[in-house]
Design a protein that fits this description.
The protein has helices at residues 14-26, 28-33, 67-83, and strands at residues 36-41, 44-49, 93-103, 110-121, 124-134, 140-153. By secondary structure, the chain is of the alpha+beta class. The chain has one domain (14-153): Thiol Ester Dehydrase, Chain A. It has a 6-stranded antiparallel β-sheet, with helices on one face. The longest helix has 17 residues, at 67-83. It starts with 13 loop residues before the first helix and ends in a 6-residue tail after the last strand. GO terms for molecular function: hydrolase activity. Residues 63-129 form the Thioesterase domain. This is PaaI family thioesterase.
């Protein structure tokens, strides 16, 4: 998502991807969105949500998806990307301290979100996020960009 030196991806254990997907499926709102993990590596995640009428703004002549869905994707994908930098991604915690979403155009198809960690160290983490609308023919249009910051608690036991 940004220019700079390209490092080889640091893959995440497939079991962690399965645990993450199981968490999503057990989460009321995220499962309602039908959120799916597409790719996961240390410091980066790609997720998707299929287009569904339940996500559309009422009365929208073009069937545009409510902007809150894009904001949710920015926050959720960013948190998961940051969690992937923990020594044990299944442990620890984090809290959103700042969430900024800039909307570029209406989303009218499936959604794809890619979050990349800019920095994760000490007690804070930062991400850049891109949300795209993907048409059935594969055409992809950027619909929102996000930048987040989080307070990190990588060694905290999850309750």
């Amino acid at each position: 998502m940004h220019d700079g030196p390209t490092d080889e991806p640091d893959p995440i254990d497939a079991d962690h991807v399965d645990l993450l997907q199981a968490f999503i499926e057990s989460h009321g709102f995220l499962s309602w969105l039908d959120l799916t993990v597409e790719e996961l590596e240390r410091g980066r995640i790609v997720m998707s949500v299929p287009y569904d009428e339940k996500l559309v703004n009422p009365g929208s002549p073009v069937g545009s998806i409510h902007g809150g869905i894009a904001a949710t994707l920015v926050d959720t994908a960013s948190g998961f990307a940051l969690r992937s930098t923990f020594d044990d991604p299944t442990n620890g915690s984090l809290a959103t301290t700042d969430l900024n979403v800039t909307y570029l155009r209406p989303a009218t198809n499936d959604l794809r979100v890619e979050a990349e960690v800019l920095r994760a160290g000490g007690s804070m983490g930062f991400t850049d996020t891109l949300v795209s609308s993907v048409a059935p023919d594969g055409e992809q249009k950027d619909v929102a960009v996000g930048r987040t910051s989080y307070r990190l608690f990588p060694d905290a036991d999850r309750a």
